[in-house]
Structures are given as C-alpha cells and as structure tokens.
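User: Last request for today: this protein with phosphoenolpyruvate, please.
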Amino acid sequence: MALKKLIAGNWKMHGLFADLDQVREIAQESQGYPSVDVALCVPAILVERAVRAAPGFAIGGQDVHHAEKGAHTGCTSAVMLLDAGASLTIVGHSERREAQREGDADVRAKAQSALSVGLNVILCVGETLEVREAGRAVETVMQQLDGSLPADLEGEAELAIAYEPIWAIGTGKIPTSPEIAQMHSAIRSKLHDRFGDAGGQIRILYGGSVKASNAEEIFAIVDVDGALVGGASLTASDFIPIVQAAANSG
Ligand code: PEP
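Assistant: Here's the final one, the structure of the complex with phosphoenolpyruvate:
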C-alpha cells in the first residue's frame, strides 16, 4: 500500500515576521488535504513564532548540531528545536554538505541526535551533475546512505529520505521520471537491507525544482512518497497546489 505523502517546505534563509502570514495560510489551507502530511522547515529563529502562528501544524528546522549542548557558537541542538516547538528537522541538505563541509558521518550523527529526542528527520542525499553524467548517480547516493543513515530506528520519531539531485535544486531542471524511479527504487532496496520491514515504511521524498506544473507527474512515480520543496514553498499560492497534487495522486 502506498505511504501517506509528506510535502515539506524548506524555506532556507528566507522568512521574516511578516512571512508568518504565509505560514498561517499554508497551515490553514493544508487542512483541506487530510490525506497528505504537510510541514514547513523554517529558519531556526522563526521556529517558535511559526509554531505560535499555526498551532498544531508541523514546523521544522533545517539543521541540528549533533551535540545536546556545549561550546558550539551559533549552533542549534535538536533538543533546542524540540523545545521551541519543532516536530521535525532536515539534516544533510546539499547546501550544508557543500558550504559547511558536512560529511556523511556528521549527517548520521545529526540524524541520530534528532531522532533520539523525538524529532522526525528528513535526511537528504543527492548527486552532482558531474556524477550523474559519469553514470555514477545511484552508486554515489548508495554510498551517501551507507555513511549517513542512522544506526537504528528505535523510538517514535520518523525518518524520511529526500533524494535531491544537486543539479536540480533551484535550477528548474529535473531528472526524467525513469531516472527518479530508478533512484527511489534503489533507495527503497537499501532501506529494506538496512532496516528490514521497517524500511518499507520510510518515506522517500523527491526534491529539486518541484512546482505545481510538474508535481502530478512526479507523484505518479512508484516510491515517490512526497516532496521536499524549496522555492515553491515560500507562498501558499505556490505551495498549496503541490499539496493538492499529492492529495490527487491517491
Ligand atoms: C531544496 O532546497 O531542498 C529544494 C528542493 O529547492 P527547490 O525546490 O527550490 O529546487
């Protein structure tokens, strides 16, 4: 049976007090699509205000430090996000892997830290254009998963994987449907190998230039259990049609 779809927005470094209006609108309009889980991952400074603006709606962070506390200037721990009212976090986004030089071991530690305090996790993987053109996309993503998947899935918090080809993020380019299908199927097999039956319950999201115009086609692909959406998650008018496409995909 198909998994309930998750549509998560990643606001990246966008969002001021005035943008809480969009959080409210997205939260309210999402209620019209109960067959879809919807979340917004906002900048850490906005988490608490977003939670207050939209009680009961899933608000997340975009990263956590692996440690619970300590001398880590400028960082946010998983328990801090939880304390602010977040229910999930992204880890391993390619922008952090690149700009903050986060490796697979860092991503695994972050995922484990978040899951251990009860935050749901969206763990991102994806290849560069160079790697795809060299025919090594699947192999590379499998290596990323080997290095960054948490050791186990104990506890209530939920892990999701976001396959985000780096060359598709914010570019308007997307892989072909067979390319997405091939990658998601490989990820599903890896999750089964690692976690047994539980691997079949882990949602695999596609991310990279998802918009209202391509969402329906993407959600029709087997083992695409939702989307991680950047640019098109900033306003209700762009984001809600993607949620609607997920609802229509059954
Ligand atoms: C992202 O930032 O995770 C992302 C997929 O961005 P966009 O939808 O803008 O390509």
